[in-house]
Amino acid sequence: MSETPITHEHIIKSYDAELARLLDEITRMGQLAGEQLAMAAAAVEERNSDLAARVVEGDNAIDALEHDVSHDVLRLLALRQPIARDLRDVLAALRIAADIERIGDYAANVAKRAIALNQNAPMRPAASLPHLAQVAGGMLRDVLDAYRRSDAVAAHEVWKRDVQLDTLYTAMFRELLTYMMEDPRNITPCTHLLFMAKNIERIGDHATNIAENVYFLVHARPLVEERRKGDHTSTLVD
Amino acid sequence: MSETPITHEHIIKSYDAELARLLDEITRMGQLAGEQLAMAAAAVEERNSDLAARVVEGDNAIDALEHDVSHDVLRLLALRQPIARDLRDVLAALRIAADIERIGDYAANVAKRAIALNQNAPMRPAASLPHLAQVAGGMLRDVLDAYRRSDAVAAHEVWKRDVQLDTLYTAMFRELLTYMMEDPRNITPCTHLLFMAKNIERIGDHATNIAENVYFLVHARPLVEERRKGDHTSTLVD
């Protein structure tokens, strides 16, 4: 029986190694999604359709990583049967990977619309988009950093920042409406910009989802707070 | 030791009961989401803002059910430590509940925008929305039915139907653009309708996600097929 502690230690070490691998995969996913978003914004700013096409193509790598995470989670649950904090760790990984996968989709959609946009004359309101992307990208970076450090306070700070992104989005939405009303030729490109801005606003929502998961991971209870209304444009009448 | 089989049977029965409860919760969630979508569409068709307000309010019930599902999944994983098909069942429940929760959000968003829309004069293209909602609602109902019966073939059929919804969405998108170009006063209400149509198109995407989960549940391998491009409007140039 003298080997039992060693074997037990071995199991624990191996479990920790698997969890660390999961965290690495998610960190890699998050970095890729952040890069995709920044490149999509650059593609708009520089009217660079080749760059946009690379972003559309690059989404596959994020999808493949999410597939790896799901596979590893299934394997880890089946073989290790974790409980309590360990179980929350594994399920948070699954959820956070799903959020990052969606963020990648949104970045790819911004890039796809950038290609269509670049076939029209330049539009002044397009200049507001990179800033929106920068704010959303900052939220993503900081919430993933909070996740790596299991820092619920930092996660909550990111969660609160979403209101700034919503304010920027609403301002851009109103700006786009005035451009559309000014000249009917602006309508199609502005419609693309509306959806691009909305995609970035949604990236902020997914960053707040990740923040909620970090909070639950640490505290084993949900982050309950009066949720900001998010997109205020849905109630605009004129 | 004679009690072992009885205890074992008891554990199995109790596990099955917990899984059945999970399935019931998800079925209830799906029914609610389907009703919410139908009511949101009716609120548009009848220009009924009271009904729309009830849909916005009603989303809380779906969110609460998703919370119950997440809680039950965590408990089931910790206490029962399922493997193989049982584990896939539990994780599918978690994912499908998340998809239904999003579908509920989209239905509530359609309702929220219906309230804004009803403050403007009636718009002819609004008449296309209920049909879009009907197609998406049909996909949701059928994929949940496939889920209850663990029927991967039926799930795959629903998955294929998403292309019809995308076609309807693209037609409505184009119709809305022409209305916006015709009269600048149409721009704000048509913008709401653009997002409402997009919300319903996204409900179809979530129904296909559920279909993919049912397929994986049954076959333990992902549904791999050339994915339909979905929203074709992102490449529209004029």
TrEMBL record, chains A, B:
The keyword tRNA-binding does not apply. Its main location: cytoplasm. It holds the Pfam family PhoU. GO terms for cellular component: cytoplasm. Residues 26-113, 130-214 form the PhoU domain. Keywords: Cytoplasm, Phosphate transport, Transport. One of its GO terms (biological process) is intracellular phosphate ion homeostasis. It comes from the Bacteria. InterPro entries: PhoU, PhoU-like_sf, PhoU_dom. It is found in: Cytoplasm. The keyword Cytoplasm applies. Homodimer. Belongs to the PhoU family. Plays a role in the regulation of phosphate uptake. This is Phosphate-specific transport system accessory protein PhoU.
